[in-house]
């Protein structure tokens, strides 16, 4: 009897494993379709000065107009896109559409794009990016590339080479989600960074306890010493804006100022 039960459990286990594998395969197929049918679309979220709320830039965020499931955010498909390698083509598709949108941006504002760690492992990423900017007519000085700590440290030498070459053409680099990764400060100066983006997990507890305020002001001091701009992510309340201003944070992004919106609804 025990044996029978045991077998049954195994069977259940097997079936659920199988279903997961099929889901992943199915999504891979659907992502290929998404590329073929051009279902990926950049949404744009404003980045503002915290004091007067003026817009200094926009971050492009990938959305998938899924034929049955509606508009999907990266949380629903990024893992499969990364594992299958499809993110490569998906990112380039999004860069192209975002750059075309940003080509007519007012001077003094920038477009920020997220790049998969894969791109920083390739030797020709900078060349491809500059070619794309040339084709779309977007000024490289208006582009900021958002990278994560993990993607910098994956192949640090190649990442440094690519970002330095891009920097010589005026392209900036932002360190995204700061505070969620290794948060080792020692490597910060080793890369040509322009912007530090404080992850929104820090803001969640802001105003409740003294701890995150102390951490944020330390990060702002560090950024200042390294000559970096600071953008706080995920600002949802006026109180958070006030506290961040008091801590000396200059820029921010979040639902308080604007949600990610399709190009038709967000002027560049
Ligand atoms: P991220 O780069 O840190 O982007 C910020 C995320 O926070 C976005 O989620 C944005 O919609 C969300 N957000 C902005 N303001 C608020 C707020 O006030 N409250 C809350 N709760 N959330 C806010 P999203 O668009 O779902 O993107 C998730 C992540 O997916 C991004 O995190 C980025 O790492 C990645 N991603 C987005 N677009 C692309 C892309 O085109 N290529 C690649 N490789 N990754 C992308
Ligand atoms: Mg980002
Ligand atoms: Mg971020
Ligand atoms: Mg984040």
From TrEMBL:
Q: Which residues cross the membrane?
A: none
Q: Where is the EAL domain?
A: 24-268
**Source superkingdom:** Bacteria
Return the protein name: Diguanylate cyclase (GGDEF) domain-containing protein
Q: Which organism is it from?
A: Lysobacter spongiicola DSM 21749
Covered range within the whole protein? Answer: 704 to 971 of 971
């Amino acid at each position: 009897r025990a044996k029978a039960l045991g077998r049954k459990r195994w069977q259940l286990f097997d079936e659920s494993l199988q279903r997961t594998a099929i889901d992943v395969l199915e999504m891979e197929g659907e992502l290929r379709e998404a590329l073929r049918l051009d279902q990926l679309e950049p949404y744009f979220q404003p980045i503002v000065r915290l004091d007067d709320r003026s817009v200094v830039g926009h971050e492009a965020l990938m959305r998938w107009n899924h034929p049955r499931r509606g508009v999907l955010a990266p949380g629903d498909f990024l893992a499969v896109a990364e594992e299958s390698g499809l993110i490569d083509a998906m990112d380039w598709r999004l860069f192209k559409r975002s750059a075309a949108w940003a080509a007519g941006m007012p001077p003094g504002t920038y477009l920020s794009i997220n790049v998969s760690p894969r791109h920083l492992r390739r030797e020709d990423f900078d060349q491809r990016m500059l070619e794309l900017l040339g084709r779309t007519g977007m000024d490289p000085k208006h582009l900021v590339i958002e990278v994560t700590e993990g993607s910098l440290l994956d192949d640090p030498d190649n990442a440094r080479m690519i970002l330095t070459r891009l920097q010589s053409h005026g392209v900036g680099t932002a360190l995204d989600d700061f505070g969620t990764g290794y948060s080792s400060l020692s490597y910060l100066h080793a890369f040509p960074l322009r912007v530090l983006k404080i992850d929104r997990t820090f803001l969640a507890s802001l105003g409740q306890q003294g701890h995150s305020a102390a951490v944020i002001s330390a990060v702002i001091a560090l950024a200042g010493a390294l000559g970096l701009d600071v953008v706080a992510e995920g600002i949802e309340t006026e109180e958070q804006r006030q506290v961040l201003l008091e801590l000396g944070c200059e820029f921010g992004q979040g639902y308080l100022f604007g949600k990610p919106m399709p190009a038709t609804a967000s002027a560049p």
